Each structure stands twice: as C-alpha cells, then as structure tokens.
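Can't paste images in this forum, so I'm doing it all in text. The chain is below; anyone willing to post the predicted structure tokens underneath?
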Amino acid sequence: MTDHIQSAQSRIFIKNGTIVNDDQSFHADIYIEDGIIKQVGTNLVIPGGARTIDARGKFVMPGGIDTHTHFQMPFMGTVSADDFYSGTKAALAGGTTMIIDFVIPQKGESLLDAYEKWRGWADAKVCCDYGLHVAVTWWNDQVSKEMDVLCSEKGVNSYKVFMAYKDVFMLDDDEIYHCFKRCKELKALPMVHAENGHLIAIKSRELLQQGVSGPEGHLQSRPEEVEEEATTRAITIADQAGAPLYVVHVMSKSSANVISKARREGKIVFGEPIAAGLGTDGTHHYNKCWRHAAGHVMGPPLRADPTTPGYLMDLLANNDLQLTGTDNCTFNADQKAIGKDNFTRIPNGVNGVEDRMSIIWEKGVYSGKMDPCRFVAVTSATAAKVFNIYPKKGRIAVGSDADIVIWNGEATRTISAKTHHQAVDFNIFEGMTVHGVPEYVITGGSIVMDEGQLKVTQGLGRFVPTPVNSQTVFGRVGNREKSRQPQIVEREPYTGPVVEIKEEDALVYNKRSDNPILPESANEFHSRPPTRGGARNMQDSSFSLSGHQYDENQPKRPGTKVSNPPGGKSTGFW
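Text version of the structure:
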C-alpha cells in the first residue's frame, strides 16, 4: 500500500505543452513516474492519481545543465559563499536541474583524496543532480595513475588544467602535453583555463608599481591578447597530443575566433562561454564604487569592449561556440575586501547559476539570434552529449530522467541580489529585466518549482557518473589517429663513409655556450680573419658587451704637442 501511495505521489502528467529538444519541437503530452519519463505523445492512457499540469502556451524543455560551477570552493584564502545547498537551490530556481562542479586539489595533493573531499561536501547538500570534473594542478606518475582510477571507478571523464594562477594551479607546457596525452589514452576530455600566467604575473607587478591597486588593475593585467595566446597554445598542444579540447569560460572575441578557426581546420575543440560574458561586460571595473567594481572581478576578466557579449552570443547561436556554463564562484563584500589595497588579492568569481537560462533566453532567443531548439542545445543537450550522459539528461524522451522545466518565454523578471536565491550579497546582472521565466521545474520526478514557488529538499540530488569515451568528443579521434601515423620512408641503407668524431671533440661540439650572445671563441672582439697583409679587418667590430675596448691593452702612442689657436694656424708657407 505504501509503495502504491509513493508511486502515485511521483506521477506527473504534463499536457498541452510545446516540447522542445535540440533537434525538434512538437506538441505532445508527457507522463512521468518514479523520476523517469514513461510516455511522450498524444491521447496518452495514464494511471490514476497523477498530478496534472497544463502547459498550454508554454515550452516544455529539458532542465538546464550548468557545466561549470565552484560551490564552497577554497580559493585565495577564503571559501566561495554559495555551498552545494544554496548553489543548487539557486540553480533550480533558474531552471537548471544539474550542475557539474570542479574538484581542485592543491599542488601535491592526491586527486583521489580531493575527489572524496568534494563528494563529502556535496552529497548531503545537493538539491539537484551533479557531476564532477577534476583539476590537474601538478603532474607526475601518481597523478597519471589516479586519473585512471577516477575514470574507471569514480565516474569522472574530464580533467582541467590551468595556464594561469602561477605558482598555485598553473602547469607548464610540457606537463600540459603529458596530461592531454593521458586524457586521450583514457578517452577523457581535457579542459583548459586559457590565460598566460607568466605574463599576468609580470603585468600585475608592473601595474602595482605604477600605483594601480584597484579592480581596474585586474582587467589591465589580463588583456585580451593574454587569453588569445593561451587559447592558441592550448589548442596546439592538444592537437599535437592527438587529444580533443574543451576551453572553459571563453571571455573575449579573439579567443572565440581562435576556437572557431580551429574547428574549421578540423580540430576537435569545444568552446564554453558563460552567463557573465554573455550578459554583461568589463566596463564595470572602472566604476567609482570599489565594491561594485570588485564584484565583477573574475578570471579571465569580463572584457571592456561592450560589444563582446553580443559577439559571443552570435557565435554561440551558430555553433562556433557550443555550450554554456557560469563559472559560478561567489564572494561577499567582506571577502572581496581581502584585496581592497591590492587587486591581485581580490577573490576571483561572480554569480550566474540562477540567471544563466534567463540571460541566454533574453540575449539569444528573445533577441532573435537563436530559436528554442538551439537554446536547448546550448543550455543542456550539448553538455549532456559532451559529458556522455545523453539522453539520460538533456532530452525529453521515453526513458530519460524527469529533469524538466516548463518555460514561459514571454514572462519577465527583474534580476536583483535582493530577490535571488544565492547566498551572495551582489549580482552582476542587478536591475536587468529579462524575458524567460520557469513556472515549473521538475528534478528527478519531483516538482521543486510549483507555479513560481520554490520548494527544494537538501540532499535530494544524486551524483551522476560521467562515463569516458563520449562519441561526441571521441567519435573521430581513433580514425584521425590512424591517418596521422608517422610516415617511414623505406630506402636502401647508407653504406658510404662516415666521419669519425673523437670523444673529446664530441664534448666540445655538444657544449652549449652559457651566454649564446657571446661567441664560443676566447677572442672577445674579432670573428673575421686578418687581412692578407696581417692587419685587422676593418669590417670587424671593436665593440664588446663586457664594455672592454679592443685596444685597451695596447701601450699609449707617443704624442706631439701642437700649440695652435682654435681653428688652426693662420700663417704658413703660403
């Protein structure tokens, strides 16, 4: 009897809505039971006791998947304000029914230990389903072995490297290459935070020395070219390793162009713009209010060019960029104030997990840049395919999880820190009125948003393993590798003479100068031979980097004293 009542309580019938998937939209009804979509169609025969929701005039879509969050993350001496409870609660309020967070070990920390720590933080708190990426912040054989265990036993299929945050998370190019190569072997997806960490460190020091200490220094220390260069380098390294690549938080026109160009060249690259970069810009760094300016500090930074959000949305609409996250990593005013006298100490991070779906609907669909099917692709379906959980997630179909949002595309809401569900005291979209509002949100078959009223349950969400070998990512890697095998030319062996190099000569030949600017020769000045008459070649330089003069050891020549007035003597033999 109890089972029957429980089953009846989990039955939901959604009728008269327009179902939207990434490839089609159509009018049909949906029957849900025990957290799974059981029927999709018209004239459905359903058991009694189901809750009926009339979705007439509304879109019925897969719940959003936010590919990039940082809940209760230890960072820059503090911990992000949104934990796995408030963060997932806010996600559901905005129509997102799954998040993928990042495990970020400290340098030298076991990846497995860090993974278990994040699971411990999340499992008891999450209100919706979640997955985990793992960051690789150091490299050796132990890390390589632990990646295998994470893939085979722990449900992880993606690994992120940092090219920024020098001496904290950053890897060097050779380490990145080995990590990407290992990902390819495991059929896991390498991800990259693409900024040139060396240049950022140098520029930051220079700006502080010049008296720039406010949030505007953050933007100026990380110019667009720093992101563009690192994106180019990361794509090159991944391609040489034979691996695909996922570029997180694409923030600039130039880095987006690099990704678009690489895809047209046949490289397997995925670009992830985020809600912040699609919804606002970096002019706020120059705001007179320090709190307002610091509230927009994130890395890579929001760009000062106000046309950037529209440009990124154009590329997202047309699949030059593929899917969206938020990089949600929130800090309150007192946390941001750690860097009140030094912009390099301002904790990096902004909000977005609650507002992503509405921002993309407003800037993408309502503006006429994308249709509702593309909206589903960039907010859930492509993410589900890339992280290999499709069609369990990211689709309205029989057998899929009942993660559903009933969306009113004409309704509006005004975004504000006063009314949002996140645990942070600031919102970068403050005062923005957006079209697109979730009226019902269903996660795992439970209605958590009911006619606009949020009713969540802590711990209701589950960890969702992401299996390796996503065909969206690796479907062409195998054949591509076969076509790229090194070419060996079969030829007759060389049988002619080979010069003999004595051991002592070999050592001299292989020795590299400590200062390659100076010649190996002990002769500091002259590299040209003397003339046929034995004199110094006048084309030879008498300049030395050491400051010595070529004739400083020569004795002084005898001089002749001449007493003539300025201009010379006016009397003579004529």
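The first strand starts at residue 12 and ends at 20. The CA atoms of residues 126 and 459 lie 5 Å apart.
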